[in-house]
Design goal:
Helicase, Ruva Protein, domain 3; alpha/beta; five-stranded parallel beta sheet
């Protein structure tokens, strides 16, 4: 399948010391156990990608973003037409990580209790009646919400508390969900009849909105050549478990974020807001509302994950640029003029990445 990479402006060297007119600076080197753990993490992520490629052809950027969300406790929304192996990718990922996996097929008649669970009245051996809570499919590690936009908002909202707080309230009781917990939802972008668009509050809970495209010619030939050859794609190694994933999440959280990176993140997010003084003319004319602070938090988190997956101990500008489109595309709303001119959210974000200036390089004092 085709790598769902997005067209971005040419990458820049994000190190401030390499910019014109800036004196060279030597960043500190990562040594000791932390650096060794990052290198082990990089090798483990590469092995995960190798295992997934046994079942899913292509989709390297999609896999990388899914791993970034998992190692930062984020959720992902996958968009693609039927038949692009979205469900297969997620179920295989759960097998490789060796954690719990459940799938919910969202339908118009699905009720919130079908997701969270319900209280049943039981009669014990002494004839006493007691309520017994029967857990729904949300009690797992990876929950695949298939075609999430096919169910009404009342049922979609059953996921909100779980996604944000990682707990579920049933009656007067609030119960924690197992850790780690991730929601990976899918929706079909071409069939909108009889569907219910996700509320903006729920969309904002998804770290990434990942679009999956058709496979390339070579990838499609590989898919067709492997069809009917008896290979089920089930022979994948189990590389992790829930406890190891939790430890790796803590490792990713320790990746350094410089004030330079924080400054650029704030500039990029604020540039999406048409009423902000820093917004370019493009945004003022074509955008109704832009991204909130949660977008900046997710950009920093994604930058940490992408840096760690490369074995680096600090976030670079290129990490933010790689994550900008899937993080921001569902957090800005374009107006009629943008639609009339054929400018999509993705294209507007790409133009922002070209126009938002880099902050001034930090100054180092010799000691």
């Amino acid at each position: 399948m085709q790598d769902a990479s997005h067209s971005l402006p040419p990458k820049i060297d994000s190190s401030p010391e390499t910019r014109p007119g800036v004196p060279p600076q030597v960043p500190p080197k990562q040594t000791g156990p932390a650096g060794d753990r990052l290198q082990e993490f990089r090798r483990a992520c590469a092995e995960i990608e190798t295992e997934l490629q046994k079942t899913v052809v292509g989709q390297k950027s999609v896999i990388r973003l899914l791993l970034a969300s998992i190692f930062t406790r984020g959720h992902s929304l996958l968009e693609g037409v039927p038949g692009l192996a979205k469900t297969l990718l997620v179920s295989t990922l759960a097998r490789v990580l060796d954690i719990g996996f459940k799938r919910i097929q969202f339908t118009p008649d699905l009720m919130p209790s079908d997701i969270t669970g319900t209280n049943l009245l039981d009669v014990d051996e002494e004839g006493k009646r007691r309520f017994r809570f029967v857990k729904g499919p949300i009690w797992t590690n990876i929950l695949l919400a298939d075609e999430i936009n096919r169910t009404p908002p009342k049922t979609q909202a059953a996921l909100l508390q779980a996604m944000q707080e990682r707990e579920v309230t049933v009656g007067k009781t609030t119960l924690p969900l197992p850790e780690p917990f991730f929601v990976i939802a899918t929706q079909n972008p071409i069939e909108q009849e009889g569907t219910y668009p996700l509320p903006e509050a729920q969309l904002d809970r998804f770290m990434f909105n990942i679009k999956i495209d058709y496979p390339s010619l070579d990838e499609e030939k590989l898919i067709l050549a492997s069809a009917g050859n008896g290979q089920s794609g089930g022979d994948v190694k189990k590389l992790f478990n829930a406890e190891q994933i939790l430890r790796l999440q803590k490792l990713v959280a320790t990746v350094a974020v410089s004030p330079y990176i924080v400054e650029y993140t704030a500039r990029l997010v604020r540039a999406t807001r048409p009423r902000d003084e820093s917004a370019p003319e493009l945004v003022r004319e074509l955008v109704d509302w832009g991204a909130g602070p949660r977008a900046g938090q997710f950009l920093i988190a994604a930058g940490k994950a992408l840096a760690a997956m490369d074995g680096r101990y600090s976030v670079a500008i290129d990490d933010l640029r790689d994550a900008a489109v899937p993080i921001l595309r569902h957090r800005i709303s374009t107006n009629f003029q943008a639609q009339a001119e054929g400018l999509t959210n993705d294209r507007i974000i790409e133009k922002l990445l070209e126009s938002v200036p880099l902050p001034a390089a930090p100054k180092y004092v010799k000691r």
